[in-house]
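Researcher: Re-running this chain for the archive, since the previous output was lost when a drive failed. Same request as before.
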Amino acid sequence: MKKEVKCGYLFSNTDLRKLIIPLILEQTLAITVGMADTMMISSVGEAAVSGVSLVDMLNMLIFSVLAALSTGGAVVTSQSLGAKRIQDACKSAKQLVFTVVACGVLMAATMILFRQGLLRLFFGSIEADVMKAALIYLVISAVSFPFLGIYNACAALFRSMGKSNVTFAVSVIGNVINVVGNAVCIFGLHMGVAGVALPSLLSRAIMGVILYLLLKNPNYEIHFNKETFHIDREIVKKILYIGIPSGVENGIFQLGRVLVVSIISGFGTVQIAANGVANSLDSMGCIIGQGMNLAMIAVIGRCVGAESKEQIRYYTKKLLLITYVATAILNSILLLNLGTVLGWYGLGAETTALAYKLVMIHNGMAIFLWPLSFVFPNMLRACNDVRYPMVMSILSMFVFRIGFSYILGVQYGMGAIGVWIAMVFDWIFRVICFVGRYFHRDWEKTMYKLK
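Model: Regenerated structure tokens:
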């Protein structure tokens, strides 16, 4: 039987603030820039908005896999730091970067080689002007995947050290480049869809390179040592043990979203555009949760490394409480001002009205369900309990999010509204499964899996 740690708690309130606030600010910045991108591209026309929004669904599939692999590395390094095994944490750093970048290169090559086939496969016979915009955006976006891999891997290492302020500072630089680049390329050079994609590529490359160079500093707990690189199978296996199930889960989740959008794409350009705008705004309502996802991995991972079940329970409850309060406040403010915010997009009356209803459904229900659906299962993953969340999430995706989307959206003629109601059913099922897993205490059996 592993002994419990008797010393004080690993994180003071000050430590948590230093970790969480930059994470939330980073997510806020990224989502705000995403909204700005959508607003700027909307000036090119609804076909451009539709093309970008469709490709972004595929991009999110890739992003989620890269993020999941980085999460695997974050769990391994956080547990090593919690157990005071600093050398092991450093050894895992290079292995993580290699693994994630290799995956990014493979995905980029696949997307570029099979670009038109992939768009036809997922979205069917979309209009010609939408397809043209989507192809341009897809190719340029794919080139950025390896750089995004470097950024995600290095950012995960900084978060494991509790230095999320570093990743926030770098993201400010990258996103300023992105926004200024978009304005110049779209309004100054009139580059259309390419004017959104090229600045994103440049900003991701710069952010990845900066973080990589910073991790060469030996003053950080985790840093790239000067030893000749070689693949360490044991460390890679530990990373993949967490990363693969999370990657499969996130990948299929995003794939499910793509399939759902493919259903919506059959409803016409108005519903595609409304769905794209609503997606950007529902992300705004989940900013707190997205930041807390990353915080949960770093905090609980250290508690697992310290072998303290008491602290795992304590910080899980504390982080969830913070998430719920902040999510409720943020979404209430957004919903109360939704009409004004939608007016910034300059869309037609029908598209705006539909987007209003979709955001009301998502952000209204997110107040009650999103933290337990998405933040809470990261506690299980940090405890090496990765297979159960994967299986339940995949099951829920296919039964509720996809199955009920077809039933309500197509069979009952509810369109995009039916699709978003089906999403709420998915959340409810996830909450039941994950909360039940916690109280059944199965996560305690997997805590020491990677020792």
